[in-house]
Amino acid sequence: MGQTVSTPESPPPEESTPTPASEDAAPPPMPDFSAEPVPAGGDPALSALETESKSVLLPPTSYEEHYREAMEMLKGYETFENFKLEGMLPMPFCALTCDLRSGPVQYQGRMPERAAIRGLNGGFADMVQVMIQQPEKGHLGLRLMLKATERVTFMLQGESTREASGGIAEVGYTGEMSQTNFKFCPGFLNLQYMRTLSQHFALGGEAAIMAPGVWSLGLAGRYCLDKTVISGMITAMGAAQFSYVHKCTDKFMFGGEGSVFVGEGGLQYEKVFGMSYALPTMGTLRAALHCVSGRAVANLQQPLVFVPGTCTAILSAEADLKAVAKGSSKPVKFGLGLQFIPM
């Protein structure tokens, strides 16, 4: 009896003991399997489809950069006269750049000035950027940018001249599919928002208060295809802008921009047509024609591979077609520049 009783009692513990041991070894795959349906709503294939659909959406862009392709091709380069030299000195935690030129420097709303040193820039650990412009001519500009997190950025811009001085602060937030910017200074508030709505379309708006009782609203959108970008903007102050850029090949693209605004003389408009072409042996050529003002500008950038480091030669040209028709003495301006980054 004792033997028969002991034999049935011993097997159950033996059967129960290996079973929990095997269950304890199985949990590693079990939690992983049970955790997969939670974010995807119960279907792993659906989660893969959602992540793929998010990856093909347009990256968020700010309201002011809704026409960045047209701005870069038509106005993303400057024309200068005589000679200029740009250099950058990279350091472990910062980078210093200096801009020297002998020709006139054109500031918005002021007469051209001749400058020896135009700018001195510095960046620290890719988070803080400081810029000082032309201190010896009574014009001092400061730009401070701090990247607090991957999504939040603070920016402070200040300018001081012999006549007046001022500054503006900006806070930017970058979401997964949106970009928000808030600017403020004494007597001025501005809120901008841009959101990606689909794989090809993004829409945004702007609200600004410039003075007591003076406000403005704006609406902007951009439509992107594989080789075409169409953007437009309209404001309540009576301004509108439209741009079109088409990439024919990897080396050639063309586009145009039209704008209408209310100026001192009433309703004014501007039309610009331009192109960008990567020459086989001479670098990148960008040219634009301003139809209303009659200005034709061109910029050629050629990397110099025989110089140690990164060196680029720049050839700038600007022609006043209206002055050429009138027989002006100096209708064309040329400039030669050099950008250098040591190894």
TrEMBL record:
<keyword id="KW-0653">Protein transport</keyword>
<dbReference type="GO" id="GO:0030150">
    <property type="term" value="P:protein import into mitochondrial matrix"/>
</dbReference>
<dbReference type="InterPro" id="IPR023614">
    <property type="entry name" value="Porin_dom_sf"/>
</dbReference>
<dbReference type="GO" id="GO:0008320">
    <property type="term" value="F:protein transmembrane transporter activity"/>
</dbReference>
<keyword id="KW-0813">Transport</keyword>
<keyword id="KW-0472">Membrane</keyword>
<keyword id="KW-1000">Mitochondrion outer membrane</keyword>
<dbReference type="Pfam" id="PF01459">
    <property type="entry name" value="Porin_3"/>
</dbReference>
<keyword id="KW-0812">Transmembrane</keyword>
<keyword id="KW-1134">Transmembrane beta strand</keyword>
<dbReference type="InterPro" id="IPR027246">
    <property type="entry name" value="Porin_Euk/Tom40"/>
</dbReference>
<feature type="region of interest" description="Disordered">
    <location>
        <begin position="1"/>
        <end position="46"/>
    </location>
</feature>
<dbReference type="InterPro" id="IPR037930">
    <property type="entry name" value="Tom40"/>
</dbReference>
<protein>
    <submittedName>
        <fullName>Translocase of outer mitochondrial membrane</fullName>
    </submittedName>
</protein>
<comment type="similarity">
    <text>Belongs to the Tom40 family.</text>
</comment>
<keyword id="KW-0496">Mitochondrion</keyword>
<dbReference type="GO" id="GO:0005741">
    <property type="term" value="C:mitochondrial outer membrane"/>
</dbReference>
